[in-house]
Amino acid sequence: MTRGRFITLEGGEGAGKTTQIRLLADALVKWEKRVVVTREPGGSPGAEEIRGLLVAGETGRWGPVTEALLHTAARRDHLERTVWPALEAGHWVICDRFFDSTMAYQGYGLGLGRELVATLQTAALGDFRPDLTLILDLPVEDGLARAAARRGGEDRYERMDVAFHHRLREGFLDIAAREPERCAVVDAGHPVEAVQAAILDHVTRRLGAS
Ligand code: Z5A
């Protein structure tokens, strides 16, 4: 059995990950891949329980270290119970956010720094990495407006101040610049179809799917 591929989508609020994941999954199914779509925080029963602790409540509900630990604990459960078995079974796994979100949100956004977050990721993941990470990049104000329009409300992270969201965006771009082999930055400011075309281009060229 050939191992599947692991594709992660990252970006700030309202970047369009959910929209693009649906379209990417459809394309991969047409190309006769077996596809699993999942998300973080969450993606397994235990991790979904932890998600409830993370996305609801006051912005200052958790200290930054506790918050990073909760995301990391959820991630380990998600990997063991959902992602690794699916990859072993030959599925292409598409994940809405992964460890780059911990680096961007908790490392850059909340100021924990790269070193501590990298240590946590090594403890939870070992050497495991996505085959491809698509970072959807969008000006902060545009992303927040999209997210607010979609939900009609705000979750805990959307209520962080605008400076936080700027640190987040710079964080994602820095991650991409440090790991160009794994990461591709996609301009998410274009219409849905154009963003989709750019994503399919990366998936085809980098992973050989079509
Ligand atoms: N988090 C963390 O802090 N640390 C971690 O380690 C992890 C996560 C893993 C999970 O939230 C939160 O957890 C997240 C980070 C934090 N912060 N927040 N919020 P979530 O999973 O509930 O939400 P999200 O991942 O942030 O999703 P989102 O940003 O709100 O949305 P999206 O999936 O990127 O976008 P969308 O739903 O596809 O699109 C948003 C709207 O824009 C919608 O109305 C679309 O129709 C529209 N849209 C999409 N594409 C376009 C284009 N191209 N043009 C115009 N309009 C568009």
SSE diagram, text form:
Blueprint: E1 6-11, H1 17-30, E2 35-39, H2 45-55, H3 64-88, E3 92-96, H4 99-109, H5 114-125, E4 132-137, H6 140-151, H7 162-178, E5 183-187, H8 192-207
Parallel strand pairs: 1-3, 1-4, 2-3, 4-5
Helix pairs in contact: 1-8, 2-3, 3-4, 3-5, 4-5, 4-7
The structure holds ligand Z5A.
What does this structure look like?
- This protein has helices at residues 17-30, 45-55, 64-88, 99-109, 114-125, 140-151, 162-178, 192-207; strands at residues 6-11, 35-39, 92-96, 132-137, 183-187.
- It is of the alpha/beta class and 210 residues long.
- The chain has one domain: Rossmann fold (3-Layer(aba) Sandwich).
- A 5-stranded parallel β-sheet has the order 2-3-1-4-5, with helices on both faces.
- Helix 1 (17-30) packs across helix 8 (192-207) and helix 4 (99-109) packs across helix 7 (162-178).
- The longest helix is centred in the middle third of the chain and has 25 residues, at 64-88.
- It is globular and about 45 Å long.
- It starts with 5 loop residues before the first strand and ends with a helix.
- The structure holds ligand Z5A.
- Ligand Z5A binds next to helix 1, helix 4, helix 6 and helix 8.
- It is an enzyme of class 2 (transferase).
- Belongs to the thymidylate kinase family.
- InterPro entries: P-loop_NTPase, Thymidylate_kin-like_dom, Thymidylate_kin_CS, Thymidylate_kinase.
- Phosphorylation of dTMP to form dTDP in both de novo and salvage pathways of dTTP synthesis.
